[in-house]
Amino acid sequence: MKLLHLDSSVLGPQSVSRQVSAAIVDRLKQATPSLEVVYRDLTQAPLAHLSGSHLAAAQGAPAPAELGPDLAASAAALDEFLSADIVVIGAPMYNFTIPSQLKAWIDRIAVRGKTFSYGPNGPQGLAGGKRVIIAISRGGYYGAGSPAAALEHLETYLRSVFGFIGINPEFIVADGIQVGPEHREKALADALRAAASLRAA
Question: Which keywords does UniProt give here (predicted)?
């Protein structure tokens, strides 16, 4: 069984989402010691954002030679995702949504004919056999019913995009980490407890 672990926070070891995603992976490895883990740090080795040349090549146009490394990186990211049984993602909220590094990765795995298709009945997800667990961290409180809920475009976006490709993701949430030290400490502790109690792979 293979697990793909992704982090997208720019904060390094100070990142809450990184700490929680690592705890999720540790929990799953303890439950399944034979689990094969592939790690990708989207800030240390970022994928380029999509360009017109990349999209044209994906639609069959001749690719310029200089696009070769980008296309190879794109294929590698997609292959990692397709071969994984479990995907664990650390996703902090930046300006109400996902980090641009994570968006660049999503643009490489949301591929027609690979992870979704269009048919007479509309779009169909093709990646439904995977388990996706996402550790999200948010500076304030954006949960359902909160005054700032309308500004929440992190969890809602990830739920939508993974749903589009056939996956119902699981979320572990650390909220209010910028409200104050005690709020950060409690949010992190609660998220780590949730990670430790995850069902086995």
Answer: Flavoprotein, FMN, NAD, Oxidoreductase
Residues 74 and 104: beta-carbon distance below 8 Å? no
CATH topology of domain 2-196: Rossmann fold (3.40.50)
Separation of alpha carbons 187 and 58, rounded Å: 42
Structure confidence by residue, pLDDT tens digits, 135-159: 999 999 998 889 999 999 999 999 9
6 contacts: CB under 8 Å, gap ≥ 6: 21, 39, 40, 41, 42, 87, 88, 89, 90, 102, 105
Q: Where are the domains of the chain?
A: 2-196
Provide the annotated binding site for FMN: 9, 15-17, 93-96, 137-140
Going by the annotation, the residues of the binding site are 9, 15-17, 93-96, 137-140
